[in-house]
Write a structure and sequence with these properties.
This protein is α/β, with parallel strands linked by helices and 328 residues long. It contains 14 helices and ten strands. Strand 5, helix 4 and strand 6 form a beta-alpha-beta unit.
Length: 328
């Protein structure tokens, strides 16, 4: 964590490579533990997947997955739950709408496996889905994919059931997303209702939104994120109506009433534009639902480091606090 503290900038593109450089050796040292957890891959949903095609996490180039389908990974705990039911956590990674993969290529191939392994070692069934990326898709494509992954979990309990998970708790699923993943997670719950909304919303017990951008108030039009988001949402007006704040404002009374409790997580070293958006969204959630979200700071972490720290033995405290919130 000392290396993270020494990075002078807070901007996402500035911290990405040095943060990866700091944590990849730590992840590699724990490869056996990370990969020792049981993991299976399943197809879900009706859409084709587009994914990054090199180990450069900043690339925006994409191509259809060779399997032609959206897939998800399920990580299984190695010991049964003491309470009888096994909690389920669906985690959605970030990548600025344009990059990301549930199984990153080397040398970052443990980058998201570490998240699955960390929470599985603490008793969760962890589901990490891929979703369609921009520019091959625009809103609401990725949110629909995340929604379909959650519905897959609800409807396919047999794929979650193992000798160590005899009773998966599909009636009280927790969702967590980081950065763009946080946007997709909350959007999956607030995009216009479908016939399956009556199945989806009652099955969600809580949402952890980690460093997402939920509105674009005061954004510099020349900022790279603003430009990408404008394309994803189909124009400037889409930033207002289709970003999470706009979806919350236009959601039906039934959807708002059904929203679960929310935990907002921010790294201590987040860029100011991310922190301010999260603060505004927290106030909006309280105003519309009447329930104040819980806020948490991941101490010592920048925008990228918190997830990479998992399963390394360093900087994991924030995730332990998330588990405490889930189990409260």
């Amino acid at each position: 964590m000392e290396t993270i503290a020494q990075i002078s900038s807070r901007e996402v593109l500035d911290v990405l490579e040095p943060t990866l450089g700091a944590f990849i050796p730590l992840l590699e040292a724990n490869r056996a533990k990370i990969q020792g957890i049981s993991r299976k891959t399943f197809k879900y949903g009706p859409t084709e997947r587009h994914q990054v095609c090199s180990c450069n996490l900043l690339t925006t180039r994409s191509y259809p997955d060779i399997n032609g389908d959206n897939q998800l990974d399920v990580y299984y705990p190695d010991t049964p739950s003491a309470t009888g039911k096994t909690q389920i956590l669906v985690w959605s990674y970030g990548g600025g709408f344009v990059t990301g993969d549930r199984q990153m290529p080397p040398p970052a191939d443990l980058a998201y496996a570490c998240v699955g392994s960390f929470f599985a070692h603490r008793g969760f069934i962890v589901i990490i889905p891929d979703y369609r990326l921009a520019p091959a898709t625009i809103f609401p494509g990725a949110a629909e994919d995340v929604r379909d992954a959650i519905l897959w979990a609800i409807k396919n309990q047999e794929h979650l059931t193992t000798p160590t998970t005899p009773s998966p708790n599909t009636a009280a699923i927790f969702l967590m997303g980081h950065s763009a993943g946080a946007i997709h997670v909350i959007s999956a719950l607030t995009i216009p209702e479908t016939p399956e909304s009556s199945v989806l919303l009652p099955s969600i017990a809580g949402v952890i939104l980690h460093a997402g951008v939920y509105d674009y108030k005061g954004f510099d039009p020349n900022h790279s994120w603003y430009n990408i988001a404008t394309q994803y949402y189909g124009g400037v007006e889409g930033l207002k109506s289709k970003a999470p704040l706009g979806l919350l404002q236009s959601a039906s009374d039934a959807t708002v009433a059904a929203l679960p409790r929310v935990l907002l997580v921010l790294g201590e070293l987040e860029p100011e534009w991310i922190s301010k958006s999260s603060d505004r969204f927290g106030k909006a959630i309280e105003a519309y639902t009447g329930k104040k979200p819980t806020s948490q700071v991941a101490k010592g972490h920048n925008h990228v480091s918190a997830n990479l720290a998992l399963a390394t033995g360093e900087g994991e405290e924030w995730a332990e606090e998330v588990i405490t919130w889930i189990r409260a």
